[in-house]
Amino acid sequence: EKGTYAHYMLKEIDEQPIVMRNIIKNYQNENNELKLDADIRSAMKAADRIYIIAAGTSYHAGLVGKELIEKLANIPVEVHVASEFSYNTPLLSEKPLFVFISQSGETADSRAVLVKIKEMGHPALTITNVPGSTLSREADHTLHLYAGPEIAVASTKAYTAQIAVLAILAVDTANVKGIQLDFDPLQELAIVATAMETLTGQKEEIEQLARDYFETTRNAFFIGRSGDYNVSLEAALKLKEISYIQAEGFAGGELKHGTIALIEEGTPVIALATQENVNYSIRSNVQEVVARGANAMIISMKGLEEDDDSFVVPHVNELLTPLVSVIPMQLLAYYAALHRGCDVDKPRNLAKSVTVE
Ligand code: M6R
């Protein structure tokens, strides 16, 4: 039930700190150590390459997962859009492990890939919010998101839950492989949960930004580099899906290779700046678009902020910044849709789970 909330989407955005704490609780044992099934551990250890298969927002979580697994567990990862995999099947490694990410566990495009790779004899792990779902039953292993039912068509808490579980999976695999890490995911996720609470308490500020930038615009651009680029893709999907504003997520460095031609007087450009090593370059991109008339908004992170930034998210571990930077993006989309009179929870032409290929 949505209780006092006007929309499920807003309720689900607010639930994200609780979901982080549920994940921490469910993935640790009484000694505060990670608790994953032995068969998942051996599947991860045996894999020489991981193929993540997903659609939409779950695909965007997969892009963050690639970075986590490669950096922490030192296994190469490819991320594929499920609907393309059947035609563009990549050359597979000798010991592939397929990881399906799906909130509903019912996405037909992902299921088609699962059927195909099972016929080929490859192992599969499903990360889902619905343990009895088709993708969970038909895979060899399941990891649960513990996010509670997600009702709004626009996915919010499932995205952050997927990233949190992928971080846990990456660190657990590193532990099993004997890789020493200076990163305790349970502690870091607890810091994230507190940061999320701060952010969900700043709705008025974000609502005002949505008014200033999205009230009448036809289009919008989200830019970022490195980890911020992954979030810019999700930010654009969220905005277009519920507010019908044409939006694109772009790698900051790619702008000058074509897209900057679209910048006109007043075009909203939202730049994410939470990564220290690219902070200077993303800010240069902002100057380039401002010089062409863009209405730029910089969302930065505590410790990297500058005076004119529009919004600053609390500091969290650099590998986990998508978990916090996505929250103002979700809220911007929510308020943009609300102010434009759109049906936030049930956008036109869309279904919660896409069960046809
Ligand atoms: O249930 P799934 O995670 O497999 O769904 C995948 C996509 O259909 C889903 O994420 C979709 O993109 C959302 N509506 C995005 O908000």
TrEMBL record:
What residues does the SIS domain cover? 40-179, 209-347
Q: What is its main location?
A: cytoplasm
Query: Top-level EC class, please?
Result: transferase
Instruction: Provide the GO biological process annotations.
Output: carbohydrate metabolic process; fructose 6-phosphate metabolic process; protein N-linked glycosylation; UDP-N-acetylglucosamine metabolic process
Q: Name one GO molecular function term.
A: carbohydrate derivative binding
The EC number(s) this enzyme carries = 2.6.1.16
Annotated catalytic residues: K352 (for fru-6p isomerization activity)
Key word Lyase present in the record?
Answer: no
Q: Name where it's found.
A: Cytoplasm
Q: Which reaction does it catalyse?
A: D-fructose 6-phosphate + L-glutamine = D-glucosamine 6-phosphate + L-glutamate
The answer, when asked if Cell membrane is one of the entry's keywords, is: no
Q: Its GO CC terms?
A: cytosol
Q: Which UniProt keywords apply?
A: Aminotransferase, Cytoplasm, Glutamine amidotransferase, Repeat, Transferase
**Complex formation:** Homodimer.
Q: What function is annotated for this protein?
A: Catalyzes the first step in hexosamine metabolism, converting fructose-6P into glucosamine-6P using glutamine as a nitrogen source.
Q: Could you identify this protein by its name?
A: Glutamine--fructose-6-phosphate aminotransferase [isomerizing]
Organism of provenance: Oceanobacillus polygoni
Query: What does the organism's lineage look like at the top?
Result: Bacteria, Bacillati, Bacillota, Bacilli, Bacillales
Portion held of the full protein? 244 to 600 of 600
